[in-house]
Specification:
With about 220 residues, the chain is α/β, with parallel strands linked by helices. It is about 40% helix and about 15% strand. Strand 4, helix 6 and strand 5 form a beta-alpha-beta unit.
């Protein structure tokens, strides 16, 4: 295991150094594109002795590990040391068969805090977000969740990358989550997001939208157009 650094070293993702905003949205067209962009980010963290926390489709857990190991990453060794942690999204986002944004964020903050207490300078989080396409109560609150993350990340320094498969999400959801991330991957390069809406402002907009649709008697109250 590499000697753990302080956690203050520059972090690079898709070219530039990641600054103060570490809640990042990454849209990909396919698995190969995703791997090319994420691999250097994952490798750098493991070499620095940081923890890697990945949340994936539970049906693809073994495939995810095999893909990383095929790219030369020592995942099995890192997992034995507790440096690499893999969860299915059924354990994190959909625990209990539903999505509860408040509970999920509280558990995530506790997880990241405990990692520091265990000696890891920081945790690099990668979350695959297709859980929101499953038929479970609460998944329609994904935009609210992504917006609330920005409030929590004011207290945290751990970088988190929310991975979206562009072939599976509607344009409305894409626009909704786009506005909830201060940083966005455009093509192969990371940029500050010109469409970002501050969380207090955006949460109020989402509440007003839900109230208006509920007042009209809409059967499905969505957060996105």
């Amino acid at each position: 295991m590499q000697t753990a650094l302080s956690g203050d070293e520059p972090i690079r993702f898709a070219g530039p150094v990641v600054g103060a905003h570490r809640h990042i949205c990454a849209f990909f067209h396919d698995e190969d594109e995703e791997s090319r962009v994420l691999l250097p980010f994952i490798k750098e963290g493991l070499e620095r002795g940081e923890r890697a926390l990945h949340i994936v489709d539970p049906k693809l857990r073994h495939q995810h590990v095999r893909r990383l190991e095929a790219q030369g990453l020592p995942i099995a060794d890192a997992e034995r040391r507790g440096q690499f942690v893999l969860h299915g999204w059924d354990e994190i986002y959909l625990a209990g068969g539903c999505f509860d944004p408040e509970l999920m964020l509280a558990n995530m903050e506790q997880t990241l805090t405990e990692a520091r207490q265990e000696g890891f300078p920081q945790t690099r989080v990668i979350c695959h977000m297709e859980w929101a396409l499953e038929d479970h109560p609460g998944v329609d609150r994904i935009v609210e969740h992504e917006t609330r993350c920005n409030v929590m990340w004011r207290r945290l320094r751990d970088p988190v990358i929310c991975v979206y498969d562009l072939s599976r999400f509607s344009g409305g959801v894409v626009m909704g989550v786009l506005r909830a991330h201060p940083m966005i991957l455009i093509g192969p390069v990371l940029h500050e997001n010109p469409f970002y809406s501050p969380p207090e402002e955006y949460l109020e907009e989402l509440r007003s939208r839900r109230h208006a649709r509920s007042s009209r008697g809409d059967q499905a109250v969505s957060e996105v157009p």
